[in-house]
């Protein structure tokens, strides 16, 4: 298994995502365009050399009604991609080519137990590496039925030392 340093060198765009991100997920019906759900998030994106996984992401989700959910996404790196195969998803992430500006990552995965449902995700990271936007396209039976829009800002590059209590503050509005 490659080291974290080797993975950072081979996937420099993904390496810019390492750290702690806070933001908001918004889900939209693909037919009506109506907002169907939203929640706040705090994600820990990290490269590890402890033998557990080369890349590991921990997602904390916070709903307005007090519901909290934490999901772990350990992954391996091989053949120029990050590969997931865990209790939640099976799929990959890779650098979007061509991308003359080195800002784009693409993901494709299926939810475990739902082989007829697949998702494509596009991630754009800002040139300063402090902001990113993500778009998920949910496809079932060949048709997009839902889209998720995610806006995030990096709150720390120190994922190991970051400590926070409760849900994130509101996502900062551009302007």
Please give a structural write-up.
The structure is a single chain. This protein has 175 residues and is mainly beta. It has a single domain (4-156), classed as Lipocalin (Beta Barrel). 6% of the residues lie in helices and 55% in strands. The chain is built from two helices and ten strands; from the N terminus they run ααββββββββββ. A ten-stranded antiparallel barrel has the order 1-2-3-4-5-6-7-8-9-10. A hairpin with a 7-residue loop joins β2 (35-47) and β3 (55-62). The radius of gyration is 16 Å and the shape is globular. The model has no long low-confidence stretch (mean pLDDT 92).
- The CATH architecture designation is Beta Barrel
Question: What order do the SSEs take from the amino end to the carboxyl end, as H and E?
Answer: HHEEEEEEEEEE
Structural class: mainly beta
Low-confidence stretches: none
How much helicity do the residues have? under 10%
Quote the average pLDDT.
Answer: 92
CATH topology: Lipocalin
The count of β-strands is 10
Number of continuous helical runs = 2
Q: Main sheet?
A: 10 strands, antiparallel, barrel
Report the portion of residues in β strands. Answer: over 45%
**What is the number of independent domains?**
1
| Basic shape | globular
Q: End-to-end span in angstroms?
A: 44 Å
* Highest CATH level, the class: Mainly Beta
Integer-rounded radius of gyration:
16 Å
Notable characteristics:
175 residues, single chain, mainly beta, 55% strand, 10-stranded antiparallel barrel, 10 strands, Lipocalin, globular
């Amino acid at each position: 298994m490659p080291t974290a340093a080797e993975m950072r060198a081979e996937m420099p765009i993904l390496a810019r995502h390492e750290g702690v991100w806070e933001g908001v997920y918004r889900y939209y019906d693909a037919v009506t365009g109506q907002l169907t759900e939203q929640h706040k998030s705090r994600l820990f994106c990290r490269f590890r050399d402890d033998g557990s996984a080369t890349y590991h992401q921990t997602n904390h989700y916070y709903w307005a009604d007090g519901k909290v959910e934490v999901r772990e996404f350990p992954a391996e790196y091989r053949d120029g991609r990050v590969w997931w195969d865990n209790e939640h998803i099976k799929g990959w992430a890779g650098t979007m080519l061509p991308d003359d500006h080195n800002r784009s990552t693409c993901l494709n995965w299926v939810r475990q137990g739902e082989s007829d449902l697949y998702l494509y995700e596009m991630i754009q990271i800002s040139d300063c590496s402090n902001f990113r936007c993500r778009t998920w396209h949910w496809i079932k039976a060949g048709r997009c039925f839902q889209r998720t829009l995610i806006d995030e800002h990096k709150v720390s590059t120190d994922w190991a030392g970051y400590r926070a209590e409760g849900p994130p503050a509101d996502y900062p509005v551009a302007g």
